[in-house]
Each structure stands twice: as structure tokens, then as C-alpha cells.
Design goal:
The structure is a homodimer. By secondary structure, chain A is of the alpha+beta class. The first copy, chain A, contains 5 helices and 5 strands, in the order αααββββαβα. The N and C termini of chain A lie far apart (47 Å). The mean pLDDT of chain A is 92. The interface between A and B is large, with 36 and 36 residues. The first copy, chain A, binds a DNA duplex through helix 3.
Chain lengths: 137, 137
DNA sequence: CTACATGCAAATGCTTTGCAACCTA
DNA sequence: TAGGTTGCAAAGCATTTGCATGTAG
């Protein structure tokens, strides 16, 4: 069901997973590529993308559904929320418990079949906050 | 403050705004382009993008912060939530009141300076739900 | 008149894909 | 050895940008 295809354990796949788990941040494919390349200098960006996709499908990692133009990946596969810096795009976990009753509230008032929800906070990280001084743009 | 520059009322800008308000959906730049081109055949996609940006800065429309790879625009400038079809990317309003206490909950437990939040529901629109029959992929 | 705006095309940034060579099970 | 996987390069797609020309105020 979850594994329609025979997945293989390749060096590339292993290292990508290890490095992502060690980072403990929410890196983009390119950030993962840069780190992994230290151990596997010949790896290609395409392979990183393909493996992140595969690992997500396997349930080993989580592909984040965030606004913004780049995809990010999370070693933590549990459902949780995030907060993103509008200025530098840094992403942290948002320490707030999952809202379980939300989807039920919507149930009777939408024609959609609800699958889930994403909650994302927007803000300024300490560094950017310092640089800007105040929130105005 | 909101209008650092002298904005001009051009034919293009007018038509884009009118058409967006008439659509009452959550169109992408390209969808708006297709519609506007019926009235202004020589308009360019670049102009559509530039004007959507300007109109959003002017507060006439809202640029939506949704996950997924394309930006969408909303004639409704009030804060509200959305539900997006995972399959066809259709976006509807989510009829649920804004959660006002959310950001306060986070206030003490994050190092970020919170600006706001986005809540997005994910689901299947009636059409896609019919086609698929069930949620499994 | 003079900024701001437009059309056009080229460029950008992120992601995906085709393909031959290469491995893993 | 069969079929998934890789590296490489090219393609894809949404969006942005440079520039000469056009136009609103």
C-alpha cells in the first residue's frame, strides 16, 4: 500500500536521510545538497530531489506545505506547525499543539472533502528583527 | 506610508482590478491574464504580474499565501482562510472565523516576532472527489 | 514634460525529466 | 540480471527584469 515499488537502499539515499536528521532544521533541497556533497562530492541535485520525494513517500521524512516559493523538508514526521521569517525565510517549529477540532468545524459548511490543514505563522526571526528594528516592510 | 510612489490609473490596471473583482474566485496571474486579454489583447503577462503586485501593495486586492507552486490573488481583502483541492488546485474560501487568540498562544514560546498566520485546509473538491472515489492518493 | 507604466523578450530560480550508464537485491 | 537509481544536461514552469517606447498627470 505504502510501498508500491521496491525501494533500494543506496548510499545517496542513506546519506541524505542521515544528514537531514542531523540538521534538525527545515532545509530546502539545495541546502541538503550542499551538506550531502561534503560526503558524496559527485551527487547531483536531481538525485537529491528524487530521493527527498521518495523518502517522503516512504514516510521517513516530511515534505512541508508552506507558503513561499521553495519546498522544505523536515526530519520530524509528526504533525506540527511552523513559523516562517518573512525576511530571510528561516523556518522554526511553532510550539503549539495541533488543533484537532478545526476540520470538524468546517465539515458541514464546505463542499470539499477535507483531508487536513496547514497552519503557518509568519514573523521575523531575531536576526531580521534586529536588523529591521520594527515591522513595516 | 502606503503609497510611496505616485500610482497611475492605467487602462491595464483598471481592467485587471475589474476582472479580478468579477471573477470572485482565487485566480492565478495566468488565469487573470487570459481573462483580461479578452478586453486588452495586447497586454503582456509581465504587466499583469506587475499590476497585481502594485494593486496588492495599494490594498485593493490580496495576494494569497498558500502552499503549492503558484501564487493566487483575491478580490476580498479581508482576512479569511482557504481550502485547496490537492488534486486540481481549486481554491475556495473556508467558512470559518479567524482565530484571534492563536498568535497570543505562541507569543511566549517563540523567539520570533509574530506578524500573522495562515491557515489553509487541504481537501478534495466535489469534482475531484467524484473522479477519485476515495482518498488514497 | 517627466516619472511611472507597458510590451516584449530574455533571464531567473526552483524543480522535474530523458537517457545512458550503473548498482542493488 | 532485472529493474530501480544515478549523474548530467536539458527542459519546464512560474515569475521577474532590462530596456526602449508609450502615456497619465
Amino acid at each position: 500500500m505504502f510501498q508500491e515499488k521496491n525501494r533500494r537502499i543506496t548510499k545517496q539515499r542513506q546519506v541524505i536521510l542521515e544528514e537531514l536528521r542531523q540538521l534538525k532544521t527545515h532545509p530546502s533541497a539545495d541546502e541538503i545538497y550542499k551538506v550531502v556533497r561534503r560526503r558524496l562530492p559527485r551527487i547531483s541535485l536531481g538525485t537529491v530531489y528524487r530521493n527527498l520525494e521518495v523518502l517522503a513517500k516512504m514516510g521517513e521524512i516530511q515534505k512541508l506545505e508552506l507558503s513561499g516559493s521553495i519546498k522544505r523538508y523536515d526530519w520530524n514526521t509528526n504533525k506540527h506547525y511552523h513559523i516562517r521569517c518573512v525576511r530571510c525565510d528561516r523556518v522554526d517549529d511553532a510550539p503549539i499543539a495541533p488543533l484537532k477540532q478545526l476540520e470538524g468545524e468546517l465539515y458541514e459548511s464546505t463542499v470539499f472533502e477535507i483531508i487536513g490543514h496547514n497552519l503557518e505563522f509568519i514573523g521575523l526571526c531575531p536576526e531580521c528583527s534586529k536588523k529591521i528594528g520594527t515591522i513595516d516592510h
